[in-house]
Amino acid sequence: MATTRERDAEQFGVTLPDVDRFRWLLGLVVPAALVVVWHLLVATGVFAAHQLPEPIRVVGTLYGMGVSGELWGHIAITLQRVFFGVILGVSVGIVFGTLTGLYGLASDLFDPLLQSLKNIPSLAWVPLFLLWFGIGEGAKVLLIAVGAFFPVYLNLSTGISNVSEDLIEVTEVYDLGRIESLRSVVFPAAVPSLLVGIRGGVGLAWMFVVAAELIAASQGIGFLMSDGRVLARPDIIVGSILLFAFFGNLSDLAVKEVETRVVDW
Amino acid sequence: MSSTGERTLAVEGLTKRYGDTVALEDVDLAVDEGEFVAVVGPSGCGKSTLLRVLSGLEERFEGRAAVDGVDVRDGGSDAVGMVFQEPRLLAWGDVRENVAVGLPADVDRDEPAARDRIDRLIETVGLDGFAEHSPGELSGGMAQRVSLARGLAYEPEVLLLDEPFSALDQLTKYEQQDNLLEVWEAQGTTIALVTHDVEEAAYLADRVVVLGGQPGTVEAVVDVDAERPRERTDEELMAARRAITDALGV
Description:
The complex is a heterodimer. By secondary structure, chain A is an all-alpha fold. Helices cover 79% and strands 0% of the residues of chain A.
């Protein structure tokens, strides 16, 4: 393909601009079109403004809340919950993932239980956590940690137990010993799986934070959302959704960036 | 180095079964210090199994397999290094780190002396300037050289090579074979190489053990007397190749 294009360029004596560099802009075309359609649908009265506000009103609301300072407290507390929840969930996930990945006994003991717990929907935990831990920050952080835990646990556990037998044989032939072979072969080989797990965990953390904040919070983006419903302010609801989308994407990109930097092989 | 007067590598009456399948039956093999022995045989004759037994990767077998008089099940395999059919490198390490995997356990890899040794080995296998490259950036032949350097770093009594060049194109294969001979002559390592390539066996080895059939048994032992350095078209090599081919029954 490239060669054909180069040949064409030579033939006509022109140099084509390097289009590939701007390719990512294509990803903005459809969302931008949707915003336009959204605006038109509301402007022409297909959707009533009290159900779906115009895009510009959503932006205006967010901007207003930003200027008044009200918005930042909500964002900060949500980010804080997600952050601590992810730290806790990923840490516990690493511990259990490593144990079950390395030791058959640990896997036999814990894996069946954890495999079935992972199928419990996030909202199902909420009443129990409220009962146990009250409506404080602890309950929310724990709930988010539950979400972040499972992908890390599942990926790391299989990542460690599936390290290539070929490489294990190398460590045996060269008598690396248990500790050294873990340090220089097994754990590095499992790093890509761990990062895939963390990425999934961060994604689920955002789902769980909504669950936590919708039901029992007096601050946070999720609270803002349910407040928007109570106040019949669709602009606040849509604005909150956009905030979740924005920060969810941002954190995903961040983990992805770490992934490409660390796993450069 | 064999203080006990034993052969460097001694295999007697080796039989290896996988369930009902007999991979090797009553195999004898003896390799002296500094000798280059090739084991040739068709696919499925148990060539690789033989190396797996010697390197301690297979612990259940009948008969005797010893390195320097020490049974491979009693730590004799610790004196054996292995170059596998595939390079089997650590993708996350560079060439230097990969070679360092072979360093004996009691050597501190961060010591300057160890570093120098690694760098010299990298040079020996002809990879000067590639110490900081990652395996993903190397060609198949270069990766296999890293694997060879890793085996040498281990300072083994015997270096085992399991069809190390079978995945390479003809030209690269010739280069690698000559490089292996240079390394062998420079380091004086005892080598046992397994291959299905008759030409390769005759060109490289002092002695060629022909395994045949299923289960694998020793069909013949062919001495290759051609003087070194050898020409690939040497009359004596041709004769050795004919003898090997005859023993294989082809």
